[in-house]
Specification:
- By secondary structure, this protein is an all-alpha fold.
- It is built from 18 helices and three strands.
- The chain has a three-stranded antiparallel beta sheet with strand order 1-2-3, covered by helices on one side.
- α6 runs antiparallel to α8 and α6 runs parallel beside α9.
- The C terminus is likely disordered.
Amino acid sequence: MRKGAAERIGSARDAAGAAQARAKAGPRRPGARDTVGTTLALRSTLSRLRPGRRGSGRGPHPSLPYYFLIGATFLLIVVGLLEVYSASTVHNLLTGKPELGTVERQAVSAVIGVPILIAAARLPVRFYRALAYPLLLVTLVMLLLVLILGQVSTGGNKNWLVFGPLTIQPSEFAKFALVLWGADLLARKEKRLVGWDHLIVPLLPMSGLIIGLVMLGGDMGTSMIIAAIAFALLWVVGAPGRLFAVLTGSAAGLAAVAVLLRPSRVRRFTAFLDPTADPQGTGFQAVHSFSALSTGGWFGVGLGASREKWGSLPEAQTDFIFAIIGEELGLIGAVAVLLLFGLIGYAGVRIALRAQDSFVRLASGAVTAWLMAQVMINLGAVLGVLPIAGVPLPFVSYGGSSLLPSMAAIGMLVSFARTSDVRTGDGGAERTDKLSARAGAAPSAVAGAGRARPAAAAAGGARRPQAEREEGRKP
């Protein structure tokens, strides 16, 4: 009997609550479906459960991209240090250099990069926007100095500035500078990006200037990545497909001319078409890269047990370090490294998609395109699906000039992941209010479904258990 009374009281309470909700929502327009209110209430509730919102006085909770970026980046750096050590010791012994000299320099760069990443992760968006123009100016000056005072590398490129024991490759910093400057430029011009003139000028002339300065030094691989950054900025901002068709055709034509103007690039391209045609000459590097990957099998020959690093594979610690990873760690280890890069790419895209700020969206998309394009160009050369371009593998290959800007870019993405959801405030509730207005329901009633009840309702709810107990005692 008590059970039946309790069930009747519960049914009456549910009916009263539903009636009260309908009274608050007010009359709905004809044709509105009954599921709209439930959908909007669920969306409002889920918007309050998203990571990154303010909790109980402890500040914003980092979202999933935050953990992906931090975890994947540091795992790649660790893998890079191990493989640089494995691939460089033999080369150093054969050339009479200190056995641990290469890995020690890479470790110093990583130690310097960690505080840079942490500091970048805590900087606000306005700092990056203020940094855009000064960094671009400094980068242009350094690129000009490379042409005047630059050091010529073994491959014939003129990419380096040497200041005593310090060696800098300004073209690596030019990537980060173009990301910040291009994102800030397009964010400022967002309301005027209707015609092609505002989309193209001054973004493409500045990108062309940077690419031209880099190409004068002979570095076509880095020029391709800079072009990818410019394309990504235009893609994220919503440039029309016809503009991309024109730009893609122009870029392909200029790339063909750049290849034909330099005999070394022609030899690389012909070796890409058929590496086995000259296995002891132009195809030597590609053939030994394939040999290293095929030797690794499923699980590899073991860390430090590579045979190709014994003078057979040139640039084993830099551009072709992935071949050593495939040989020593096998297919399983190589796929694990690819998955780590995939996590970084996913995190960058997710940050860009969820960003409410135009600069954050553009910068996140451009950084993601930069890193993923560099990964694809490097892996394409190692696997033989692209010509060899001399591009290092981010976070893994030897080189502080590549590692430090990449870590700074990851730090900026982490900053966006930490703060983008907090800046949106009640973004989920605002979208719910807009949808409820289109459905004809009262925004406050729908949004209130996921919020705390008023004090009077809470007090009434507190009195119900006592009333139920008294009702339950009645025969």
